[in-house]
Amino acid sequence: MAGGVSSVEACRQLGIGRKTGYRWRAECGGIPPERLADEARSTRYLSLLERQRIATLRAAGHPIREVARRLGRSASTVSRELQRNTFPHDRGGYDATLAHARATGRSLRPRRGRLLDDPDLRATVQDKLEIEWSPEQIAAWLRAEYLDRPGWHVCHETIYQALYNSGRSGLCRTLTTKLRTRRPLRRRRRRADERRIRVHHPVPVDRQASRCGRNPL
To answer: Which residues share a beta bridge with 186?
Structure first.
């Protein structure tokens, strides 16, 4: 489905029934977010090219500070990269392609949500959802009401993900019926460059006249 095929077609290609496909989607909270290509990722993260340069410079014997200077990164970033993505069983030391695969896989692993770890925060959010507050309203209210508790300053997307992935958040899945959309599954939002422009066709004169109760003649 992330590739553009319909739900029915995806089920057909996998050889499963539509109910099974719906259940699988429901268990994952709907359609998962798209994976970003390297060029679309934040510059905070090292790219494959940067990791390849690290491997080349380290193989040439350059120290960490010199590698960081040539990359335009801090020495702590390069040091942390070498520690995280170099294992004792790696032959030949730091491997750029392997390190990049490890970092990408680590970023895709589901993390425990803040609502799951803090039962008081979860109860507060759930109470507001029960009275049909939107996640945007709840997020703004938490920031204004609990100025001295930055741990409670969650964004609205955190609440949405907690609702649609209830197994990893602790929120009741039935609270999705309290949202404005009432959707049990999330739908992928179109990007700005994907939005369709609606063309309004002019209404014929005779139809306009019939609406107003007048004879155009």
So the answer is: 30
